Amino acid sequence: xxxxxxxxxxxxxxxxxxxxxxxxxxxxxxxxxxxxxxxxxxxxxxxxxxxxxxxxxxxxxxxxxxxxxxxxxxxxxxxxxxxxxxxxxxxxxxxxxxxxxxxxxxxxxxxxxxxxxxxxxxxxxxxxxxxxxxxxxxxxxxxxxxxxxxxxxxxxxxxxxxxxxxxxxxxxxxxxxxxxxxxxxxxxxxxxxxxxxxxxxxxxxxxxxxxxxxxxxxxxxxxxxxxxxxxxxxxxxxxxxxxxxxxxxxxxxxxxxxxxxxxxxxxxxxxxxxxxxxxxxxxxxxxxxxxxx
Length: 293
Fold this sequence. Notes:
Elements (H helix, E strand, L loop, with lengths): L3 E6 L6 H10 L23 H13 L17 H17 L2 E5 L7 H7 L4 E6 L2 H23 L2 H42 L7 E5 L3 H16 L30 H24 L13
Parallel strand pairs: 1-2, 1-3, 3-4
Helix pairs in contact: 2-3, 5-6, 6-8
């Protein structure tokens, strides 16, 4: 039996952890060693530590921020890291008939994975930039809260929560919102550029929100079109509204309105690709609808 490999793509804070958790419960092997829960992902990141650590190493080799919140191209992957990727793939293929992984940084290396793993399928998870930027801002602030809770004394904590945090909040959002939006644009432009050069039978674009009501159809698509053998588990078993960041108007913190126009244009392109998928690769019983607002 030929191996089936699913690469789960999406910008940070786009719901990829949620979807990978669900697919794991449906029977997809997503890594023998997974990242532990953390700030912003108390249910777990569901990132294969082998890919996660390797991607961080590659970013550091390119003098880039290993968080992956960047808008710069990775210009070089060393021969060592290419051989390491090949080795990981060989081992996974020997151990598992169907497997996949999720790490948002994968989006930065797509042209290399298309070469190294040509038989892979791509599940692209999209989330509107408003929600992603808000989630990144709130996660970073939550990390600051954790720093004060664990590293600072009582007086420092009181000053932070009662005075400094309120004064800091708007200045922080104004400083970082454009950076996060630039990264959202860069990730999704890279996804669009790469799928343009793929067979349209190799990728599926979904909004994670649709899985609340269309989870059976998505799983049916993976099994029927891509010949995975996954068992249905309810998406509602992993989805929790209380864990999602509530959106607010990030435009108030972004001075360069051209960035917002560019992001809106990318969202429209993603909708168009979703429409192409409906026409070309999806059986009549499964009409994928993407909601990006």
